[in-house]
Automatic annotation (TrEMBL):
Highest classification ranks of the organism: Eukaryota, Fungi, Fungi incertae sedis, Blastocladiomycota, Blastocladiomycetes
Keyword Transmembrane: no
Catalytic activity field: 4-nitrophenyl phosphate + H2O = 4-nitrophenol + phosphate + H(+)
Source organism of the structure: Allomyces macrogynus (strain ATCC 38327)
Pfam families named in the record: Hydrolase_6, Hydrolase_like
Any one cellular-component term (Gene Ontology): cytoplasm
Chain residues that bind substrate: 221
EC number(s) given by UniProt: 3.1.3.41
Record-given protein name: 4-nitrophenylphosphatase
Signal peptide stretch: none
Active site: 25 (nucleophile), 27 (proton donor)
Protein's UniProt keywords contain Metal-binding: yes
SUPFAM superfamilies, sorted: HAD-like
Length: 295
């Protein structure tokens, strides 16, 4: 596959004329940390002026779709509604809905508020946040952790307050009943922050894989489960996936039969893009912000 560099306004116009919908990753595409990537606000406005539909797709499970609307607006990116956002937490709740997960069962969450918010929005009962900050003082504490027949699923997302109590409870629920579902919101093992990497969701459910011998169904990019949610809600005709990661964003688009655009404003460098065995996007460019110059 040819990795075509886009670097001129005419090339930008030729790109966008091919598509009706753009699936946009967020971190590394729209912003870095808490700062908007230059020109992105004008680029999104230009795409909308051309009648393009923008769907924001993220593996970050810490926020609900409503919270992401607030984050977009806080950075000056207006015009998005919750239905325009597909996050890993939302996709996980959609998966449970699609399989008819019983509403009288509880979901134990190793994660943060975003997962709980999306589960409860679809009528599921969620617990686990109450174990944040619970200290582990010794093996005697484990006697209080017992199998609970109400728990029908364990969902793992990024958890900035991960502790032994949460892992011990999740382990107990998964081991005590083989029918208890084991889900992970996304596969990212590490996230890049300020030029370094730190543990992400994949590193947080790995202890449970080791202790239980079970592997979770992973929902987020590049997996088909998240793709199914987008297809069901939005369709994928004449769609381009835009992201900054080869292993999740670009592979996700390719898995869905979409054209793919890699931006070099986030994780992937040009050197990595052209390294041996690298996943190849259809197009690449310096930054999404360059699309502000579409004639």
């Amino acid at each position: 596959m040819t990795r075509q560099l886009l670097a001129t306004p005419d090339q930008y116009r030729a790109l966008v004329d091919q598509f009706d919908t753009f699936l946009l990753d967020m971190d590394g595409v729209l912003w870095q940390g808490s700062k908007l990537i230059p020109g992105v606000d004008r680029a999104l406005a230009r795409l909308r002026a051309l009648g393009k539909r923008l769907i924001f797709v993220t593996n970050n499970s810490t926020k609900s779709r409503a919270s992401y609307v607030h984050k977009l607006e806080s950075l000056g990116l207006y015009g998005a509604a919750p239905d325009d956002i597909v996050g890993a937490a939302y996709a996980t709740a959609c998966y449970l809905t699609s399989i008819g997960f019983p509403k009288d069962k509880w979901v134990y969450v190793v994660g943060q508020q975003g997962v709980v918010d999306e589960l409860t929005a679809q009528g599921f009962q969620a617990c686990g946040l109450e174990d944040t900050g619970v200290p582990f003082t010794g093996m005697d504490d484990l006697a209080a952790i017992q199998p609970d027949p109400r728990i029908g699923a364990v969902v793992c997302g990024f958890d900035g307050h991960l502790n032994y109590t949460k892992l011990a409870k999740a382990h107990t629920y998964l081991m005590s009943n083989p029918d208890t579902l084991f889900l992970a919101t996304n596969p990212d093992v590490c996230d890049p922050v300020h030029g370094r990497t730190f543990p992400a969701c994949g590193a947080m459910y790995s202890p449970l894989v080791a202790s239980t011998g079970r592997s979770p169904r992973v929902v987020g990019k590049p997996n088909a489960t998240m793709l199914d949610v987008i297809v069901r809600v939005h369709g994928l005709d004449r769609t381009c996936m835009v992201g900054d990661r080869l292993d999740t964003d670009v592979r996700f688009g390719l898995n869905g039969g979409c054209q793919t655009l890699l931006v070099l404003s986030g994780v992937t460098t040009e050197e990595a893009l052209f390294s041996q065995n690298a996943i190849a996007p259809h197009y690449y460019m310096a930054s999404l912000g360059e699309l502000q110059y579409i004639p």
